[in-house]
Automatic annotation (TrEMBL):
<dbReference type="InterPro" id="IPR032466">
    <property type="entry name" value="Metal_Hydrolase"/>
</dbReference>
<protein>
    <recommendedName>
        <fullName>2-amino-3-carboxymuconate-6-semialdehyde decarboxylase</fullName>
        <ecNumber>4.1.1.45</ecNumber>
    </recommendedName>
</protein>
<dbReference type="InterPro" id="IPR032465">
    <property type="entry name" value="ACMSD"/>
</dbReference>
<dbReference type="Pfam" id="PF04909">
    <property type="entry name" value="Amidohydro_2"/>
</dbReference>
<comment type="similarity">
    <text>Belongs to the metallo-dependent hydrolases superfamily. ACMSD family.</text>
</comment>
<keyword id="KW-0479">Metal-binding</keyword>
<keyword id="KW-0862">Zinc</keyword>
<comment type="subunit">
    <text>Monomer.</text>
</comment>
<comment type="pathway">
    <text>Secondary metabolite metabolism; quinolate metabolism.</text>
</comment>
<keyword id="KW-0210">Decarboxylase</keyword>
<dbReference type="InterPro" id="IPR006680">
    <property type="entry name" value="Amidohydro-rel"/>
</dbReference>
<feature type="domain" description="Amidohydrolase-related">
    <location>
        <begin position="8"/>
        <end position="333"/>
    </location>
</feature>
<keyword id="KW-0456">Lyase</keyword>
Length: 343
């Protein structure tokens, strides 16, 4: 019989059921809070307004496991919800919230080590605090990577302080997930939920472009960075970005054109359409694409891995890579600990 494809959902979000109320503690309602509406649901509030409704699967590992089993997911990679990054806040207060979330995610991964692994969060607006919390999260808590936002208070990923954090991640061999947040042009997107459907892909491309042009991938070629949402609009903009690099020598800080470095980055599969994913395969190769769904939110892919399974003219081995093995490799996990051969 055909071997079962091991599935790792690399892009999922989780929040502690007892999420700390820093809005009340510090008298600042810009901090997100979690208001429980029933035993099975809650709303995230920010700025005194409802930001998002969530169900119990946003915090309950047993509920998540039941849904994973129903959808054929073997392992989830847990990461914070981007609205909780709070880079705008005082760095020490942001660190407080980061620690609470990192402790929670680590506890879930420790309780169910065969089903969950965790990514932490850091106060990216302060490189020293961010590096120290990354060290604690990885070395003391056992988290296996860090999720960061696509910018910190409008500073792109080529900002010197953010670059200092990324250099530390490279030296520690800590993989990074970049998730869009505080999107570019958000003031022009108040209607139609464009912030999610148009703003986030544009923001992700800007973040990836900033990283590529920074030159850090020349200095640290083994830096592991994955961009959510299939890299946003980056794959489709690369020819134009390459042309800009060619015709404007003064913008060059890299040895090679941008498309060269784009192939060194990783991307999740959250693009919905197999034709889009096929385009990414041609640009980046199957070994740099990782299945991710944005569970448990409305824009998630369901069932997980459908866009991979629907690909045509792609080998079973390539699908196997994208559905699980690339995540294991990217995160530096022990493959034998997770992948159990089934027939």
């Amino acid at each position: 019989m055909k071997e079962k494809n091991f599935r790792v959902d690399f892009h999922t979000h989780i929040i502690p059921e007892d999420f700390p109320d820093l809005a009340a503690k510090y008298g600042d309602d810009r901090f997100p809070i979690l208001k429980h509406t029933c035993s099975c649901g809650a709303e995230i509030y920010k700025g005194g307004k409802s930001f998002r409704e969530v169900d119990e699967n946003a915090w309950d590992p047993q509920k998540r496991i039941a849904e994973m089993d129903a959808e054929g997911v073997d392992v989830q990679v847990l990461s914070p919800i981007p609205v909780t990054f709070t880079y705008w806040a005082d760095a020490e207060k942001c660190l407080e919230l980061s620690k609470a979330q990192n402790d929670f995610i680590a506890s879930v991964a420790a309780q169910y080590p065969d089903r969950f692994v965790g990514l932490g969060t850091v106060p990216l607006q302060d490189a020293d605090l961010a590096i120290a919390e990354m060290e604690r999260a990885v070395n003391e808590l056992g988290l296996i990577g860090i999720e960061i936002g696509s910018n910190a208070n409008g500073k792109n990923l080529d900002d010197p302080e953010i670059q200092r954090f990324l250099e530390a991640a490279a030296k520690m061999d800590v993989p990074i997930l970049v998730h869009p947040w505080a999107t570019v042009g958000v003031d022009r997107m108040p209607k139609h939920n464009f912030m999610y459907s148009i703003g986030m892909p544009s923001e992700t491309a800007l973040a990836a472009g900033s990283l590529i042009f920074s030159g850090i991938l020349d200095k640290y070629p083994n830096l592991k960075i994955c961009f959510a949402h299939g890299g946003g609009s980056l794959p489709y903009l690369l020819p134009r970005i390459d042309q800009a690099w060619e015709v404007w020598p003064h913008i060059r800080a890299t040895k090679q054109p941008p498309s060269y470095y784009a192939k060194k980055l990783y991307y999740d599969t959250l693009v919905y359409d197999p034709r889009n994913l096929q385009f990414m395969l041609e640009k980046f190769g199957a070994n740099h694409i990782i299945m991710g769904t944005d569970y448990p939110f409305l824009l998630r892919e369901a069932p997980p891995g459908k866009v991979v399974e629907d690909l045509e003219n792609v080998s079973d081995e390539e699908k196997k890579q994208m559905l699980g093995e690339n995540a294991i490799e990217f995160l530096g996990l022990n493959k034998a600990s997770f992948i159990k051969e089934t027939v």
